[in-house]
Amino acid sequence: MSTASARLPEGRYGRSSDERADRKLKVAGAVLGAALLALVGYFAYHYVVESKISAQVIAFDATDSAVKVHLEVHKDSGTSGYCTLRSQAADGSEVGRADFRFTGSATRIDKVVTLRTTAKGTTAELLGCHTD
Q: Are 56 and 72 in contact (CB under 8 A)?
């Protein structure tokens, strides 16, 4: 006497429930992945396009009580805002932090600003720029 097989014949009754579940998971993963990619793209676009002020530290000169920072700022005409700078000592402790305001119609500002410090600073770091 032979035993009956518990498996259904291949291709005769359509997909099994496991195959249907796998397909649904793949579709759900693709939809969620596309949504995440669109969200990241949206925020990246707005970060780049909406950033009306950008700046960079060109050079700095540190003394015992201040750091003179050569700052180059690019902004839209008529945009006002501020850039935050900080200085750290050799041991990594923060010895100075200040906001420097920029207004006017110029689109490029090349300025040397003085950041007062509580001890000798060894760095001049641009933390960021923001519009009003």
A: yes
Cα angle: 82, vertex 85, 91; to 5 degrees: 165
In tens, the pLDDT along 45-87 reads: 877 776 678 899 999 999 889 999 999 999 888 888 899 999 9
Q: The whole model's pTM is what? A: 0.61
Number of CB atoms found within 10 A of residue 119's CB: 16
Mode of pairing for the β-strands spanning 81-88 and 108-116: unpaired
Bin 105: left if φ > 0, else alpha if -120 < ψ < 50, else beta. Answer: alpha
Counting DSSP H helices and E strands in the chain, the numbers are: 1, 6
